[in-house]
TrEMBL record:
Pfam families: MRP-L28. The keyword Transit peptide applies. Belongs to the mitochondrion-specific ribosomal protein mL40 family. Transmembrane segments: none annotated. Residues 133-160 form a coiled coil. GO terms for cellular component: mitochondrial large ribosomal subunit. Keywords: Coiled coil, Mitochondrion, Ribonucleoprotein, Ribosomal protein, Transit peptide. The gene is Mrpl40. PANTHER family: 39S RIBOSOMAL PROTEIN L40, MITOCHONDRIAL, LARGE RIBOSOMAL SUBUNIT PROTEIN ML40. InterPro entries: Ribosomal_mL40, Ribosomal_mL40_metazoa/plant. It is found in: Mitochondrion. It comes from the Eukaryota. This is Large ribosomal subunit protein mL40.
Length: 219
């Protein structure tokens, strides 16, 4: 027994020294015999690579531009209004080729008549423009002559005359509307028909399906 004990003792000391050199935790027990924990060797840290500050700045600017572009896209989507079915053109009407009106073919006489009308209209508008410009020039010249005469007569009145009129500034004007009002117009009466669409969920008639969907009435 003594040689066996000495051999076992030597083997134990050899194993202990070997595992201690490997930086492992070693333990033994009577039932599980010899066990060792897995090797926990840490990986050496990688050296952090230094980058050019200009490259980092460009990357940050690209990221900011990308975010701004996404924000603009979201803003465009948020401004979209809910479509109104009464104002939308049906797709069937758009695809229907029978609704397309053919171009009317004009005769030679009609083309000549239209060309003559365009030429006469251009001549009329030119004469009207020249008459308006000459009238404006006469008014401005008369105003300048009156101011010169007033300046020679009284300098105080001249200073008052060249002051802007506060009643003309700011200038406001209401233009013609689409349909002018009609005096004593009798509006026709009519019935109002509500065509608002109402969407209701489809409820199955089978009680079992209603129970699965949670639509059955609880007692």
């Amino acid at each position: 027994m003594l040689p066996l004990q000495s051999t076992f003792r030597n083997l134990t000391s050899y194993c202990m020294n070997a595992f201690n050199n490997l930086n492992r935790n070693f333990h033994s027990s009577r039932l599980l015999q010899f066990q060792n924990t897995p090797a926990l060797c840490a990986e050496p840290l990688r050296k952090k690579k230094r980058m050019d500050p200009q490259i980092l700045r460009e990357r940050a600017e690209k990221k900011i531009k990308r975010l701004q572009r996404d924000i603009r896209k979201l803003e465009k989507v948020s401004r979209q209004y809910k479509p109104i079915s009464e104002l939308d053109i049906p797709r069937k009407a758009v695809r229907d080729s029978e609704r397309v009106r053919p171009a009317s073919e004009l005769t030679i006489d009609e083309l000549k008549e239209r060309a003559d009308l365009k030429r006469l209209w251009a001549i009329y508008k030119r004469k009207q423009h020249l008459a308006e410009m000459s009238a404006i020039q006469r008014i401005v010249a008369a105003q300048e002559r009156a101011l010169d005469a007033l300046q020679e007569t009284s300098l105080e009145l001249y200073e008052e005359a060249i002051q802007p009129d506060p009643t003309l500034i700011p200038f406001k004007m209401t233009g013609p509307v689409e349909t002018p009002p009609i005096d004593n117009y009798d509006y026709p009466g009519g019935d109002y028909i509500d065509v608002t669409k109402i969407y209701q969920p489809i409820v199955p008639s089978d009680p079992q399906k209603q129970k699965k969907l949670g639509l059955h009435k609880k007692k």
